Hints:
11 strands; single chain; five-stranded parallel sheet; Rossmann fold; alpha/beta; 391 residues; 13 helices
Amino acid sequence: MNTASPLGRRRARAFAAASAIAIAALTLAGCAANGGSAPESSPSTSPAAESDLAATVAKLQEPLEAYPVPTEPIEDVSSVEGKTVYYIPITLQSPAFTVTANGLTDALETVGVNVQLCDGKGTPTDISACVNQATEANAASIVLDAIPYGLAGNALDAAQAAGIPVIINNQIPDPAHPDSETLETIPGSGTSMEVALSQWFALDSNGAGSLLINQSTDGPSPAAYVKTAQEEIADDCADCTITINGISVSSFSLIPSSTSAALLQNPEIGYVEAQYDQYLQPTQGGVQQSGRTDIKGMAGAAGLGSLQALENGTFLYAAASPALTFQGWIDADASLRLILGIPVPDYVVPVRLFTRDTISNDTLTEEAEASGEWFGPTTFPKDFESLWGVA
Length: 391
């Protein structure tokens, strides 16, 4: 693996951040007044810095000129025809995983490989059962999404011992389980999404806002993404306050009450972020329970429903979304390379920021989400097929 690449360095930084995941709250100096509203100008931010941040946030809202498709071709792809790849997301409560699953299915269909979807349901028991099912079925590879190795460690050990390669998406690298011929970690877009949302928050609040993040506690990666992002952009928001509210798929029903309680305990908060799409509705419910009507909502891993809500202007002001269909094609490419014993490149999953000011410029349909047009040209499937020798 090429650990000297920019992505490799980000992987290392993300892992280093994991040592601080036990925090209950993360505070950057100072606090905002009047429900997180900002003063006319920030005394800690120069006009030049504000201009640079505005340019950065504007750039984050633009589609790519081209997707970052790998360049090394794959030979002998026909030898995998008829095999089956298992895709196991942490929970199908999030529609984002369905989009990725569809992308993976479409990609592997071009080379005659089947995809079996198994819902992890947010529990170690169900995740392990899915992995065991894949092992018993002699899967060609297993793709896990947003699942740390430790949630199904014994089952994943057994799968690799049986010669089945495993891909773990959207997690920081685990030093106890480094990449190998049968294991590949693709960190995904977690840090990039947090950086994009934080930079928008810093700009919108003039560098003096107060933000509540409903952060997932399902594994070490979500906290590492948040902490790394905040460290990288601290200069953009030196007078901001960030409060973390830990939430989980396994305690979904408690999210509204914990959100409301955090807002009542911290009346200076003016922004609330749902780290992932599946947490948006209960997060908004908690804001409503608090009686606050001045909150600006933010969301990560935003899918079609969240972007439509952003356009409607009911709660959301900003949303960051990864190119989920493209991620499915990345998973297919990584699966083929591992199955065939070919080195796996570093992948980049693009992220785009959407705001109320720009969302109306996009076509918000299932077709647009599936094609990847929100993020750039829709020619990337043909690019992958050319690499695989099937175009």
